[in-house]
Amino acid sequence: MAVDRIFKDEANEEKGERARMASFIGAMAIADLVKTTLGPKGMDKILQSTGRGRAVTVTNDGATILKSLHIDNPAAKVLVDISKVQDDEVGDGTTSVVVLAGELLREAEKLVAAKIHPMTIISGYRMAAECARNALLHKVMDNKEDAEKFKSDLMKIAMTTLSSKILSQDKEHFAELAVDAVLRLKGSTNLESIQIIKKPGGSLKDSFLDEGFILDKKIGIGQPKRIENAKILVANTAMDTDKVKIYGARVRVDSMSRVAEIETAEKEKMKEKVQKIIAHGVNCFVNRQLIYNFPEELFADAGILAIEHADFDGIERLALVTGGEIASTFDNPESVKLGHCKLIEEIMIGEDKLIHFSGVELGQACTIVLRGASHHVLDEAERSLHDALCVLSQTVNDSRVLLGGGWPEMVMAKDVDELARKTPGKKSHAIEAFSRALVAIPTIIADNAGLDSAELVAQLRAEHQKEGCTAGIDVISGSVGDVAQLGISESFKVKQAVLLSATEAAEMILRVDEIITCAPRKRENRM
Amino acid sequence: MALAFDEFGRPFIIIKEQEQKTRLRGLDAQKANISSGKAVARILRTSLGPKGMDKMLQSPDGDVTITNDGATILEQMDVDNQIAKLMVELSRSQDYEIGDGTTGVVVLAGGLLEQAERLLERGIHPIRVAEGYEMASRIAVENLERISEKFDFGLSNIEPLVQTCMTTLSSKIVNRCKRSLAEIAVKAVLAVADLERKDVNLELIKVEGKVGGKLEDAELIYGIVVDKDMSHPQMPKKIEDAKIAILTCPFEPPKPKTKHKVDIDTVEKFQTLRVQEQKYFDDMVQKCKDVGATLVICQWGFDDEANHLLMHRNLPAVRWVGGVELELIAIATGGRIVPRFQELTPEKLGKAGLVREKSFGTTKDRMLYIEHCANSRAVTIFVRGGNKMIVEETKRSVHDALCVARNIIRNNSIVYGGGSAEISCSIAVEAAADRYPGVEQYAIRAFADALDSIPMALAENSGLQPIETLSAVKSQQIKENNFYYGIDCNDVGTNDMREQNVFETLIGKQQQILLATQVVKMILKIDDVISPTDY
User: Fold this and answer.
1) pTM of the predicted protein model
2) Contact A74/B56 with Cβ under 8 angstroms?
3) Which of A128, B150, B311, B528 gives A431 a disulfide partner, CB atoms 3.0 to 4.6 angstroms apart?
């Protein structure tokens, strides 16, 4: 008797070879999708959202591309997830990690076709990954002691990261911006204190780093536009109508005159609050919430600059920069820490007026103002800069540096190859395959640049047989070059994360021999 | 279909709207049931053992789970068939009771069903088969008892525990670092175990995961990790010798449960209310301050003003902490959960040596570590991994390992793994079969064959010749009268499980056999399946 259907309607299962095939193909499709964005000559993708407005994004960032895709293949989802984690964890290498995982699976597929059991492949991959990591560890450079050199390392890393992005034309300019900004953080990885403001207009070159703090707000009418030696109170309080928060309270009166009385009392209350704030001796008041006209007028009368509706991040940063605390009650003026800065003024960037705080106490935070021709350019510039900032901040903590341009992959491939030769048994095939997958990355970089990849990679491999070789692919001249001289560097932490998570993901997908898909949840048509 | 007629010759309608139901009866029903039970077992069969493969499951919402854990696979499968649902239940009850061996139990049940089918074909009545199985399972369980070994462990000698947990973990994706995870699991269990009463409350162990990093970064924290951060960005990120007030009341003006209204009709009332309101916040913060708290952990939110006051008075606070976490914090720090501000007293505060906020990666993810607690009876295992699926799978694996460690503390008898226990039982049952007169004899013998299905699946998954390997091991066991021999899954070169350090818990194994037998008995007794057709 035939087996009854065990699953619900529309649910299906795929077994053995077919399941493996489905996941290999899905994963490789994703890898191939982002493959062309790899390297300095990688191309961008246009993404169009299905939401209202059909917003368009142009990007080169692997994580951004994958995040926006609607994917049905479960194995592909694993790859999307590793790219997302890579983005959260180190910020860069989001494309490489997917491409490497895809290549590992492509090699694994060939091995499976040659009747090697997935478990054998996995154990080979594990050995190879460990070996590759050690190879990198041997070759890292650490210039933490030498501040000058370390800074130049950071510059190189920033330039390498940026060179594959839209900012590559002005990479030196932006690399400097990024390095300056990150060094200000003094080792913290909290990128929140670096604010990026995007203003369309001008060219990318006009972007600049501001040491102070820029708030994208307008100064209230009739209030001073320029304050020197400002004392700033940063607040998060209601400045519209201060409601009575006691539950169930309501106004119930029997005549118009009473209403008027209570209204005055309310006004009085607000006035008192304003007075209290003024009593702090401030000349600038920044609030997270709205400020109604009435208190604003009072502030203007007192000659105080009042800024309303600064978003939460803005408030936090401002508090951080000026050294003040975010206040919500104003009864003890003596103990509230006020923020200070030398100068507040209104500045114009393009057509917009912004408020600029300069001469702040803590130099930790800073603002980067990006200029560019269109929103798409600005968005992509922000993503690129964010990548660079992430990598730099991670490098500041873990100062180990590697060369770039396919050099680390070749170094790893060489050691992994040697391991393969020494390992007896079927595992050695898997180890060999791992090394082939590693070499695929420089191959793709060369391919994307329109170079003769087979020739270049072969040359590169030969070069790497020499001791202490620093050869990599020089995409600009289209030949094998000395990457140490070209100043192409990468952070060790990023490379390690790419290697480990790609192997982990490949391992995970390889172990699967059955895919069970539940029936998709029915969405009700709410039309 | 047999119809019943009443005295006037009209047919009874026994089942309403008869034509819309499908109905299977007799042998057909049994066969259909058996084949669907077998189908479920077949899905799990390839997941068994250290070389078992994983399954990828896609939920109705499109989320992907990759797992090797039988209970999880079955739970997430969209099963429609009634018998398949029984198998799902079977694996779930093994999970609740033992926590490990969820795959094995289903494979065993599948084997039993397969043997039963053959017996039914020979015309043996299902009830007789069921009874035979029952007897055989008793023999097997007794045999397990006989071959089990007690082993000693103590706080200083945790090696045996670690070895057993490693056996569990070796079939999971985390087997790369099974050693460190097994140690973490054992230490965690020992930290919360009540060795006097031989009991472990696993709820005191929290398994928390975060994507990023690598598997090796997993750590055991003698304290609690909460996925929250300080309520005010400018509060201190590190507190030493914290005295913690654990509150379940919000820092907000009180909301009486009875319906009420406060009418404001005069200016004075308006003023008093205002003053009153400010006083509320002041009082609340003052109360916390008065009892000497240096950290406030609250289940609810804070009003902006209260938040600032707390910050202002240098009293760090954490808000929106979930109920379960709150309880764990209370247990760990030895504090009491305080439902009202009035009831705050210095004795009710919890104590922790160090509270710190730790940030991860490039996003602003932060977590709060509460460590060096007064009472380290609550611990957290913190798992890292390259992607969400790995973290989830690691959490499940760690849970399995924890369960195994707990089972050993409850009952320190173990049996050897790698299929050796099943083979030994199979020999014992086979030998006992001849002593039974009657048809049951066949069923008992079939039970022995079914027990072989587990070592067989192990060998199959490890790429060995199943029949050859099994018969070799079996004859070895009989010849040397030695029950340590099992399947050499890892290709170590010896099939002595004692040398390979592959252990499983006795109660786990016993439970597997009992549960599988019960379910199979239940399935065999069904002779009529009525199901509504799809509409």
Assistant:
1) 0.83
2) yes
3) A128
Tens of pLDDT along chain A (527 residues) come to 345 566 666 677 788 788 888 888 888 888 888 888 887 888 888 888 777 777 888 888 888 888 888 888 888 888 888 888 888 888 788 888 999 999 999 999 999 888 888 888 998 999 999 999 999 898 888 877 777 888 888 888 888 888 877 777 788 888 888 888 888 777 666 677 777 888 888 888 888 887 777 777 777 666 777 777 777 787 777 776 666 666 666 777 777 777 787 788 778 877 887 788 777 777 778 877 777 777 777 777 777 777 777 666 677 777 777 777 777 777 666 667 777 777 778 877 777 778 787 777 666 667 888 888 888 888 888 888 888 888 888 888 888 888 888 888 899 999 999 999 998 888 899 999 999 999 998 899 888 888 888 888 898 888 888 877 888 888 888 888 888 888 888 888 888 888 988 998 898 888 888 888 887 776 665 44
Does A500 touch chain B if contact means CB atoms closer than 8 Å?
yes
Residue B262 buriedness (CB in 10 A; 0-12 / 13-18 / 19+): middle
> Best residue in B33, B64, B458 to probe A by mutation, most A CBs within 10 Å?
B64
Contact B77 A269 (CB under 8 A): no
ipTM value greater than 0.85: no
**What is the distance between the alpha carbons of residues A227 and A284, in angstroms, rounded to a whole number?**
8
Q: Considering just the CA atoms, what is the radius of gyration of chain B in Å? A: 30
CA distance B525 to B531: 17
Q: Which of B39, B53, B57 lies at the smallest CB-CB distance from A513?
A: B53
If contacts are CB pairs under 8 Å, which of residues 163-182 in chain A contact chain B? none
In whole angstroms, give the CA distance from residue A55 to residue A32. Answer: 24
**What gap in Å lies between CA A168 and CA A488, rounded to an integer?**
13
Residues near A357 by Cβ (< 8 Å), separated by ≥ 6? Answer: A212, A213, A214, A215, A230, A232, A318, A321, A322, A341, A343, A344
Q: Residue B324: which residues within 8 A CB-CB, separation 6 or more?
A: none
Q: Which amino acid is at B94?
A: Q
Report phi then psi at B517, rounded to 5: -60, -45
Catalytic-residue membership of B272:
no
From the list A36, A95, A367, A503, the catalytic residue is A95
Chain B CB within 8 Å of residue A335 CB: yes
Nearest to A490 by CA among A363, A403, A379: A403
Closest chain B C-alpha to A260 CA, distance in angstroms:
10
Q: Is the dihedral of CA B485, B487, B489, B495 positive or negative?
A: positive
Phi, psi of A232 (to 5 degrees): -115, 130
DSSP letter (8 states) at residue A36: T
The closest CB to that of A390, out of B31, B303, B362, belongs to B362
Write the Ramachandran bin of B255: left for phi over 0, alpha for psi from -120 to 50, otherwise beta. beta
Q: Report the gap between the CA of B155 and the closest CA in chain A (Å).
A: 33
